[in-house]
Amino acid sequence: MYRLQQHSHDWTSGRPVFTTCPVGKTRVGQELIQGAIDPSIHFNQSPLIPIVSIMPVVTNGRVIYLGHPEGIYQPGVHTKYVEEQLDTDAVPLNGGILVKLLAISSDPYMRHRMRDPTIKMFAPPVTVGEPIDNFSVAKVVRSEDSAYSPGDYVIGYFSFEHYSVHPGHIKHEFKHCVKVPKIPGLPLSAFVGILGLTGRTAFTGWHLYAKKKAETSKTLFVSGGAGAVGTWLIEYVKAIHPHLKIIASAGTKPKVDLLKSLGTDVAFNYKEENAEKILAEHGPIDIYWDNVSGAQTDAALVNMSMFGLILACGAIAGLNKEDEGIVRHFEKIFERYLTVQGFLFRTGPDAERAFNEFDQEVFPLLQAGKIQNREHRFIGLQNSEKALLAVHTGENFGKAVIIVDEEGGEA
């Protein structure tokens, strides 16, 4: 679709006049386009002499944040998908770049961003009335920044919009933009999954805090093991520490079956089996990778070995209901001389170092097929809200990713 811009001249004032109209929507528009094609068509005697230029206009879908959830996130209540017409040639860049969104991640941590901005947390709040944003892969369409050219693939923190300007008017500490290559055999969406937040979070925690401990350990327990971070971690640990016995939990039979297919030694459904008894039978636990907090963390605490290690990666159990995230056996930390290590992706000098070491260690494992790209794809930006809900209810099977443009999902 194109929009005609009619440049004319007001001979009485000597000033140019600019008017726009969609092609074919008005008689003038029809005449203009015909005149552009057929020079024999003339406008009758008129003080306005039109000159026609054609500019690209696209439908720009956007997911707008409407308000803060008190419990579980609800599509249509806390966010809304809308569409508007956008002239991609006329968008002010202000020294930045215009990107076309190819794929965008949906992650549980985003629930922490849906809050009153006066509440301080590790992640910046989403602004009511603005599009939500997250880790994404995109393609540069226009650029006023010499570091980027049209056609470049970039990963960054972009808005849930088909087209958006980076850095734009909403600025926070998660905003970034980096050029990336197209890797043979992998879709660009992998940059928001196994090569992005998912993989780099798992790598950061293990590489910095557990790798050395694992050399003398026997047993690892991963709660929420069938999630995107959990599956990545299990495959990675199986590859570099094959001596470790891995225990992992999930909430459905298909996810338990997935854990078994990864080589998990003991996989169980925490909704149907007693986690504390399972861990007592197969423990003690030397390293606990905690993705959930709550009851499963309590089960791990009473089954930890002396001088054990707990890596606090997530607390999804308390995202929608605070009381389900409560940990009651805190005393086990001092009774058993446990180390509890929290961490965040690319936060702090150590995490930045791990980020930079990721490629060297992980790419050979990807090429050898020891770490697989598993995606639960939601096709089209209009299905973004389904993807956002899925990661908060556990419905996703693999890394939840929204394929906005088919180029983002092609290997």
Automatic annotation (TrEMBL):
InterPro entries in the cross-refs: ADH-like_C, ADH_N_2, GroES-like_sf, MDR_fam, NAD(P)-bd_dom_sf
The keyword Metal-binding belongs to this UniProt entry's keyword annotation: no
Domain Oxidoreductase N-terminal as annotated: residue spans: 90-168
Domain Alcohol dehydrogenase-like C-terminal: 228-353
Statement: the UniProt record of this protein carries the keyword Signal: no
Highest taxon, organism lineage: Eukaryota
Keyword terms of this UniProt record: Oxidoreductase
Identification of the protein by name: Enoyl reductase (ER) domain-containing protein
